[in-house]
C-alpha cells in the first residue's frame, strides 16, 4: 500500500508539472516520467513495482539490523581462555530460554539448539553439525523471503518493455497518416512513450538491484557472523574433561 501511495503521489506531481510547465525541456522531463496521460499508466505501474520493492528491501534491512542487536547481549563468553563445562552448557540453554521471554533472536535460538544437542550426546562434532545445518536453514528461509523482491526487480524492466511494444504498435497504426501534421504529432508522442517507458524502467531497475544486492550481502554476512560467533565462543570452548 505504501508503494502504491508513493507511485500515485509521484505520478500526480508529474501530471501537474506536465500540465503547468511550458518550458519544452522541463515539460519533456515530466512527460518522460509519466506526466502525460493515459500514456503515463505504464510509468505508474513501474513506479508502483519500484516503491513496493524498495519498501520490502527496507523491511528486510530493518530485520537484519534487529538481529545484529543480539551480538551486543554478550550471551556467550568472549574472554580469552574461557572454557565451558557440560554444566555451563546446560546453564546456557536455560539462559537462552530466559532471553526468549523478552527477545526473539535467531542467535539465541541457534545457541539453544546447539546446547540441546550437546546435552543429548556430549559430542562436540555433532554440535558443530547442528550449528552448520541451522545456519543453512536460516539462509534458505532468508532467500525464500526475498522472492517477492526478486520478482519485482524482474518485473520493472518487463513492464517498461510492454510500454515500448504498446507505444510502437500505436505509432505503426498511424504510419499511413504520417503526412497529416496532427497524425505525425501523435506518432511522435507514441514513440516518446515507447522509449520513455523502457528508459525509466531500466533506471529504476538499476537502482533497485543495487539495494537488493546490498541487502542480500547484509543477510549473508549476518548468518556467517552468527555461525562464526557460536563456533568460536561456544563450540570451541566446550571442555569435556
Summarize it.
This protein is mainly α. The chain contains eight helices and no strands. The longest helix has 53 residues.
State the total count of DSSP E strands. Answer: 0
Mean pLDDT: 81
**Shape, per Cα inertia axes:** rod-shaped
Task: State the order of secondary-structure elements, H for helix, E for strand.
Answer: HHHHHHHH
Instruction: Tell me what portion of residues adopts beta-strand conformation.
Output: under 5%
Give the CA-CA distance, first to last residue. 59 Å
Which structural class should the secondary elements be placed in?
A: mainly alpha
Helix content: over 70%
Characteristic terms for this protein:
single chain; 2 domains; 78% helix; 241 residues; mainly alpha; 8 helices
Describe this structure in words.
- The chain is mostly helical and 241 residues long.
- The protein has 2 domains: 2-64 and 149-217; 65-144 and 226-237, no CATH class.
- The protein has 8 helices and no strands.
- It has helices at residues 2-20, 24-32, 41-68, 86-99, 106-121, 124-145, 147-173, 181-233.
- α3 (41-68) packs antiparallel against α7 (147-173).
- 32% of the residues are buried.
- The mean pLDDT is 81.
Helix/strand layout:
Elements: H1 2-20, H2 24-32, H3 41-68, H4 86-99, H5 106-121, H6 124-145, H7 147-173, H8 181-233
Helix pairs in contact: 1-2, 1-3, 3-7, 3-8, 4-5, 5-6, 6-8, 7-8
Amino acid at each position: 500500500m505504501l508503494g502504491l501511495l508513493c507511485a500515485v503521489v509521484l505520478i500526480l506531481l508529474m501530471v501537474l508539472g506536465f500540465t503547468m510547465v511550458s518550458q519544452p525541456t522541463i515539460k519533456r522531463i515530466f512527460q518522460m516520467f509519466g506526466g502525460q496521460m493515459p500514456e503515463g499508466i505504464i510509468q505508474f505501474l513501474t513506479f508502483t513495482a519500484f516503491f513496493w520493492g524498495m519498501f520490502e528491501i527496507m523491511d528486510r534491512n530493518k530485520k537484519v539490523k534487529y538481529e545484529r542487536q543480539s551480538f551486543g547481549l554478550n550471551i556467550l563468553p568472549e574472554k580469552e581462555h574461557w572454557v565451558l563445562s557440560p554444566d555451563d552448557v546446560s546453564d546456557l540453554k536455560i539462559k537462552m530460554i530466559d532471553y526468549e521471554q523478552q527477545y526473539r533472536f535467531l542467535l539465541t535460538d541457534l545457541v539453544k539448539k546447539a546446547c540441546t544437542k550437546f546435552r543429548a550426546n556430549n559430542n562436540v562434532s555433532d554440535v558443530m553439525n547442528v550449528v552448520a545445518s541451522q545456519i543453512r536453514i536460516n539462509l534458505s528461509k532468508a532467500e525464500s523471503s526475498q522472492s517477492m523482491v526478486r520478482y519485482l526487480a524482474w518485473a520493472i524492466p518487463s513492464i517498461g518493455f510492454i510500454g515500448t511494444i504498446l507505444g510502437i504498435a500505436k505509432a505503426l497504426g498511424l504510419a499511413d497518416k504520417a503526412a497529416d501534421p496532427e497524425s505525425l504529432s501523435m506518432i511522435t508522442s507514441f514513440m516518446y512513450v515507447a522509449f520513455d517507458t523502457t528508459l525509466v524502467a531500466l533506471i529504476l531497475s538499476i537502482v533497485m538491484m543495487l539495494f537488493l544486492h546490498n541487502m542480500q550481502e547484509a543477510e549473508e554476512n549476518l548468518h556467517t557472523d552468527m555461525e562464526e560467533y557460536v563456533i568460536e565462543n561456544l563450540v570451541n570452548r566446550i571442555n569435556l574433561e
